Amino acid sequence: MNNTGYKIVIADSQFLVIEALKSLLANNEQFTISGIVETQRELIKVIEKEACQLLIVDTALTDFDEPVDFQFVKQQYPDLSILVLTNSIGKTEFTELSKIGIKNIIYKTADREEILAAIDAALKGKKYFAEEIIDMILDQNESKSVPEEPTHLTSSEIEIVRLIAGGLTTKEIANQKNISFHTVNTHRKNIFRKMGVSNASELIIQAIRAGWIDNIEYYI
């Protein structure tokens, strides 16, 4: 990395991860943390206030639930690089993020050197993936003829599945999660698509099989 200063935004809600990133970045004079956010609205406020070069985000712990959210950010702020720092990622989510140009993804188990290498690559516009993700990509390329099981959901989507199983309507879910009716409806459509179901009863059956809800609580 050169001597240019870089402003970084962290989008995460895990205290220990945030503190670790703050400590890591504080030891490098090139980096300045412009803000720590948990929502898109907070992010927009930060990057509209001052130009930032990098967003480090955990997609599962913020309200960036769908690739379209990142697509909007990338379109509106083309100079902002994005590094996804996550606990886990499935093939479906990886494919969707790749389609909109997210090309820097590592796990939270990464050590200091890997995190700095990923940050460096992101700032230079180069690709950087964790070794486990590279293995997944290679495996995916080798088994393209095998249909992918549409069972990978984000943590927010799984929460919505549980609320649907609990009998809440789309409006009630929107009120409980403090998001718009349209957003919940979009989540429902994406969940149904990923799970390969056409109604709530089929969805709940799949959710029970996946272990997301207890079948004792539901009579299907």
Structure description:
- The protein has 10 helices and 6 strands.
- The chain starts with 5 loop residues before the first strand and ends in a 10-residue tail after the last helix.
- Strands 2-1-3-4-5-6 form a 6-stranded parallel sheet, with helices on both faces.
- The protein is globular, with a radius of gyration of 19 Å.
- The chain has about 220 residues and is an alpha/beta fold.
- Helix 1 links the parallel strand 1 and strand 2.
- Helix 7 packs across helix 10 and helix 8 crosses helix 9.
- It has 2 domains: about 140 residues, Response regulator (Rossmann fold, 3-Layer(aba) Sandwich), CATH 3.40.50; about 55 residues, Orthogonal Bundle (Arc Repressor Mutant, subunit A), CATH 1.10.10.10.
CATH class of the largest domain: Alpha Beta
CATH topology of the largest domain: the name is Rossmann fold
CA-atom Rg in angstroms: 19 Å
Q: Count the helices. How many?
A: 10
Strand order of the largest sheet: 2-1-3-4-5-6
CATH architectural category of the largest domain: 3-Layer(aba) Sandwich
Mean of residue pLDDT?
A: 83
Low-pLDDT segments: 144-150, 216-220
Summarize the structure.
The protein has 220 residues and is α/β, with parallel strands linked by helices. It is built from ten helices and six strands, in the order βαβαβαβαβαβααααα. Helix 7 packs across helix 10 and helix 8 crosses helix 9.
